[in-house]
Amino acid sequence: MNNTILLVEDDAIIASGLVYALEQEGYAVVHNKNVIEAKSTILNNNFDLAILDMQLPDGTGFDVREKLESKDTSIIFLTVVDDEGNIVRAFEGGADDYITKPFRLRELMARIKRILDKRDGGAGRSALVTLGGVTIDTAAGKAYIGEINLDLTALEYRLLLTFAQNKGQILSRSQILENIWDSAGNFVEDNTLTVYIKRLREKLGNAVSIETVRGIGYRVD
């Protein structure tokens, strides 16, 4: 079965080009031009991926994202605004990627394929990873302390998984940013990582100890 994609984009030229390129790759695409259309479409349909323009005639991509919260849909935001506040908000809200316009089509298609391959590859399989007192179900994208499901944002989950995959190793701040942002850390100032480490520590409590290695980065044994 083909992956299904919802494209919400009001620019007719960008939309037509993307729809054509996506359909050439075998994806089933539904295109909406605004928030109202998208909300109506979401009511009666499920999608593997939603590509959301941030600036829409009647709202923002965040408005569409809210309607997708109850559905298992990966999210990519497209925007002309390279604003750190919006980027942080997007990832904290569970976005899988954030791409600024103008973008290179081949790069966008590669990112779409990576996200969808990851979804397909995890379907029906349980891959459990332990870190201290935390169990991570990588297939479900969830982490638990005992039977308690940790309420982690997408970035906090990626950060936790990065530590789990590099247990006992000292990771530099740049190495961590490469893993959680998937773009060599270009979208975030270095001090933003400190904020996410602090939030993750608070949620993990005594279950996992994230050690600060002064002048280098972090380590979790």
Structure, explained:
This protein is α/β, with parallel strands linked by helices. 42% of the residues lie in helices and 23% in strands. The chain has eight helices and 14 strands. A hairpin with a 2-residue loop joins strand 10 and strand 11. Helix 6 crosses helix 7 (173-181) and helix 6 (154-165) packs across helix 8. The longest helix has 18 residues, at 105-122. 29% of the residues are buried. The model is unreliable at 122-126 and 182-186 (pLDDT under 50).
What is the CA-CA span between the terminal residues? 42 Å
- The proportion of residues in beta strands is 15-25%
The residue ranges in which pLDDT falls below 50 over 5 or more consecutive positions are: 122-126, 182-186
Radius of gyration: 18 Å
> What's the quaternary structure here?
single chain
- Which shape, going by the Cα principal axes? elongated
**Largest sheet report:** 5 strands, parallel
Secondary-structure element order, as H and E? EHEHEEEHEHEHEEEEHEHHEE
Strand order of the largest sheet: 2-1-3-6-7
Total number of helical segments? Answer: 8
Class based on secondary structure composition and strand pairing: alpha/beta
In round numbers, the mean pLDDT is 85
The helicity comes to 40-55%
| Structure summary, number of beta strands | 14
